[in-house]
Design the sequence.
């Protein structure tokens, strides 16, 4: 079956199948516009696409996939050094250009090709082998330049089919979101999902609560920052009561936001878990109970395990914390040009090391504690999950945002340190507040009141900038 199977076979000429901000195309128009790009890319192995939130980006990505090329999304806010690294490292042979996006100056950049939405083609390009690379997505670690994760067409298809099963996603759905188009969430799920599964797409542009409220979707995607802002505007949240499913990902959804959305929209949000290297591997299901703080069960074709420092598999008791490892059909093929990083990311028996700390309950429900490097705090012989302390802080009525990290302590090894955004708060008050909810050893030893938390484009707190 073609990767973009719905797009391939749809004869729907309604003008608003794919809408980005205030412009739209029908399914037939999208296929013909993308085929024109694919014609120009004949024989190209890798094509870079400036991933703005625009209809040109959608057409450019789809055109690259129809041509059988590996598509390399370039974040529109990338600085010259990062952009040049992505283009050089990926060996992109062509750079598609869209209105208002920067290009690479000088002889180092690949030749450019504009995406022209007025062009059409009826060429039917042959479907590449499923093992062919679909996307090279660049992901940043804590050190070094971003690494290119090589994702096959087979992996993308497996991810989307698994989510269709988990979320009962059908061609009757209207997907609405305002996520960036250079990440798994916004691009793979948020654009390629409808092109494979069916249903209309409404990308709202800037993800403001009023735009989500006006989108009239049945299926909404958002990150916790978006959902928090929607929950803070009750009229916008109530406008989503007619939806079928609200999906949150890319970071943990704070329990107070989960509760507020449930009360205002009538929907318990679906949380899911994944990485650039693994796509989505675990998700709550539309047909099963959803609990705050858990991200569900493995998708079809995916296996997970939680291991300790020695690699011993831990029991599924909901308490034992260790590194989450995964394997299955959604995994990437490796890091481009980085066999060293690829080897370090895999165990000798073939599991991918996520670097995330998790617990798994007897019912298979996964809870993500956080990154092993920043969210598992080892203090005085205790293993403390930062997320649990953050949830306790967020239950305080004066706390708007909270991030917890481990910082060096001469006696304990690490101490629990909290960064908090709020009004009229005192350090001692917050420490005592947490100590009344959790075990005393989990209370913050220090609370730092700040005006804002550093976040990336997907709304994730950048904890490396806090320590």
Sequence:
């Amino acid at each position: 079956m073609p990767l973009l199977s719905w797009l391939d076979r749809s004869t729907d000429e309604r003008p608003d199948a794919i809408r980005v901000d205030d412009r739209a195309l029908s399914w037939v128009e999208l296929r013909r516009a993308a085929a024109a790009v694919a014609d120009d890319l004949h024989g190209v192995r890798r094509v870079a696409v400036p991933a703005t939130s625009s209809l040109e980006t959608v057409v450019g990505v789809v055109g690259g996939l129809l041509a059988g090329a590996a598509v390399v999304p370039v974040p529109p806010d990338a600085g010259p050094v990062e952009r040049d690294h992505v283009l050089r490292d990926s060996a992109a042979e062509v750079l598609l250009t869209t209105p208002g996006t920067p290009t690479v100056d000088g002889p180092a950049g690949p030749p450019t090709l504009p995406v022209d939405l007025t062009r059409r083609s009826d060429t039917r390009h042959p479907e590449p082998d499923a093992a062919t690379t679909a996307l090279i997505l660049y992901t940043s670690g804590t050190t070094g330049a971003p690494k290119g994760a090589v994702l096959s067409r087979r992996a993308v298809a497996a991810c989307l089919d698994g989510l269709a099963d988990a979320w009962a996603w059908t061609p009757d759905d209207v997907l609405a979101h305002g996520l960036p188009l250079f990440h798994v969430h916004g691009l793979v799920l948020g654009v390629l999902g409808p092109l494979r599964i069916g249903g209309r797409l409404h990308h709202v542009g800037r993800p403001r609560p009023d735009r989500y409220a006006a989108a009239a979707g049945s299926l909404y995607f958002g990150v916790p920052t978006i959902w928090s802002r929607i929950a803070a505007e009750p009229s916008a949240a109530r406008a989503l009561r007619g939806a079928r499913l609200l999906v949150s990902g890319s970071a943990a959804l704070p329990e107070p936001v989960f509760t507020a959305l449930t009360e205002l929209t009538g929907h318990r949000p679906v949380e899911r878990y994944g990485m650039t290297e693994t796509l989505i591997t675990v998700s709550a299901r539309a047909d099963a109970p959803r609990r705050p703080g858990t991200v569900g069960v493995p998708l079809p074709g995916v296996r997970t395990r939680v291991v300790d420092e020695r690699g011993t598999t831990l029991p599924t008791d909901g308490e034992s914390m260790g590194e989450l490892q995964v394997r299955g059909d959604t995994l990437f093929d490796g890091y481009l040009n980085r066999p060293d990083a690829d080897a370090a990311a895999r165990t000798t028996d073939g599991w991918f090391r996520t670097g995330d700390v998790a617990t798994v309950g007897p019912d298979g429900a996964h809870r993500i504690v956080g990154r092993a490097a920043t969210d598992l705090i080892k203090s005085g012989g205790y293993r403390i999950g930062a997320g649990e302390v953050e949830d306790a802080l967020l239950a305080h009525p004066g706390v708007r945002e909270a991030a917890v990290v481990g910082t060096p302590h001469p006696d304990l090894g690490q101490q629990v340190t909290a960064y908090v955004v709020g009004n009229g708060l005192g350090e001692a008050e917050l420490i005592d507040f947490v100590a009344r909810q959790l075990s005393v050893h989990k209370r913050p030893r220090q609370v730092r009141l700040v005006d804002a938390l550093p976040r990336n484009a997907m709304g994730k707190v950048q904890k490396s900038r806090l320590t």
DSSP finds 13 helices and 25 strands in the chain. The longest strand covers residues 399-409.
